[in-house]
Amino acid sequence: MTEDMDESTDCLKAVVESWQKEFIRLEYVHARAAVDRWTEEVKILECEIPAVVRWFEKQAMRWSRMAFGQGDDAGFRAYTCRQFSLYQTLADNALEVFTAVTGGEEAWDSIWDNPQVGEDRGGSVPMEIEN
Fold first, then answer.
1. Phi and psi of 118, rounded to 5°?
2. What is the pLDDT of residues 44-71, one digit of tens each?
3. DSSP H or E run through 78
4. Residue 125 CB: number of other CB atoms within 10 A?
5. Torsion sign (Cα): 80, 124, 103, 38
6. DSSP-derived 3-state class of residue 71
7. What is the pLDDT of residue 29?
């Protein structure tokens, strides 16, 4: 009878150990997936941040060209100058905030100089995510 109890205890221990290993494996898989999601999100943001600043600057230049390229209407010129000022302020503020968030000017310069966003398609293109 003692042998039967020892055998059933050993069997129970084996089952418990098997479940513990499975639990640990699943915890690892879930943690790894969370890390992968956050890594992908960081890469996406590194692409989107410069795109936002570039878009504000592009809009500012567009309104600037419109201000001096069309007619002599003072109202139109005042409106276009106001729009230019708005977008230039947005670009300056975004640049200031994003520089602080990305870890300083050196980090920002590296992100700015190496965009992953497709300029020729008018938006972003799918990125290759390293595993």
1. -80, 110
2. 888 888 889 899 999 999 998 888 877 6
3. helix 74-102
4. 11
5. positive
6. coil
7. 94
